[in-house]
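User: Teach me something about this protein's shape.
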Amino acid sequence: MLDMSPPTSQVAPHALSSFVDRAMRAPATPALASPDGAVTYGELHAMASDAASHFARLGLRAGARTAVLGGKSPETIALVLACLLTGRPVLLPSVDLNPAVVHILLQHAGVEHVLAAEPFGEADVVRPSRGAGVGEPLLSHAVPGPQDIALMLTTSGSTGLPKVVPITHRAILRFASWASDRFDIGPGANVLSYCGLNFDLSILEVWTTLMHGGCAVLVAHDRATRREHLLDLILRHEVNVVQGVPMALGLLLDAADVRGCAVPSVRHTILTGDAASMNLLARLPGPFERSEFYNVYGCTETNDSFIHVIDVQRELERGAIPLGDPLPGVSALIVRDGQVLDGAGSGELWVSTPFQADGYLGRRSRDDGFAQQPGVQALEGHFRSRDLVRCDPTGMVFLEGRTDAQVKVRGVRVNLQAVEQALLTDPDVAEVAVVAVDDELAGKRLIGIVRRRPGIQVDTMRLRARCARELGRIAVPATIEVQDDALPKTPTGKVDRAAVRRIFQRGVS
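Assistant: First, the predicted structure itself:
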């Protein structure tokens, strides 16, 4: 029997204490739903206890930072729980990263041991047994890890090497308290778990759900783009909360259109992670006839910062969805030329939230979003998002793009995301990526890659005219290529512009 009594000096709250309590009080309640069947709270706790019993054999030092590799499954989640409930902070690398990048992240996070629930590279396999009985729990107490770190998440790496973001137990508790109240996540609630465990969206989809007695409906990584599979999961498990990037919601809308069915169980639909096109917005509510719709803004380093309840007709009339209102305890500032704006104007968004990390792990350079702006005291404690926003005279804030998505074409600054949004307003365009490639005369020239809707012939001249009309001639892509295949995606479901650029460059080399 392992001694799980917390040290008397340990006073930090533990995010998963409520999970342990529920496993004791209501062990037969569903906790996870997966293609291999349902797992109850009692079974999941027993699986975590079974995994924890192997830690001494593996020589895992108490408080040691660990990494858990592998896809999203009940076994992987049980292994993460076992680490957290025995005071071991967990790094969760994306399954899409190559081994060399994973090795660098392990070093940055200070990981001492690498675990997996299935065979995965050099990891030690600890497969929690689903056959374990509930019995007397090994994990009867929740022990916070050193420095209160719970999860070590990773950024998408869309602009370079992914960064390791430490999330504390306190931050998870604060966020889960807000999210569970706002989206009715509690006993009896079924929440779709779409994204990977390494991204901050999982804090709502998996950890908030388990902390508050709901059931997380797991979408397997290799099925995340199968629209029929997503719809089947929602219908079969009567999902109440759906969170995803616009691409995921588009897949669900496509599947429901083909099948001609509604999904009345969904009460909360959350758009996050990327800007939604007006074409997608116009298709709402579609089959989600009883759902409220939200635009939620945030990033891995700060978690969610803004929320806006979407009124489809109103947003269509103004042609954009606002970021909305700051969450409780969130401070948001707009900075331009080193000065904090007061009133209407455009600039870079800096935010401070009760859920944010204190900095990246293992990063030697301070040239990151946590570095302070010299001479601007108001920005102390705020994170530099590198998102460009516009505040209108009514105080409404709109996302305009990224500072790292700006390029110069013939000496004029062009925002690649603004060009993409212009192209996405065409009803024949399903998705698009605009990238900049080197050009001897212009410095950079723009290339647009468009996936058309099935059976549609896209007029590229019309697309070019749309860009010229909305953004000016300098923003018109020199080339627009049309294809039927889906564009490459990052692990969060966003279009991978770096991969698109590599594909184009290989095609012209």
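Now, about its shape. Residues 169-182 form the longest helix (14 residues). Residues 1-10 have pLDDT under 50 and may be disordered. If you'd like, I can walk through any region in more detail.
User: That's plenty for now, thanks!
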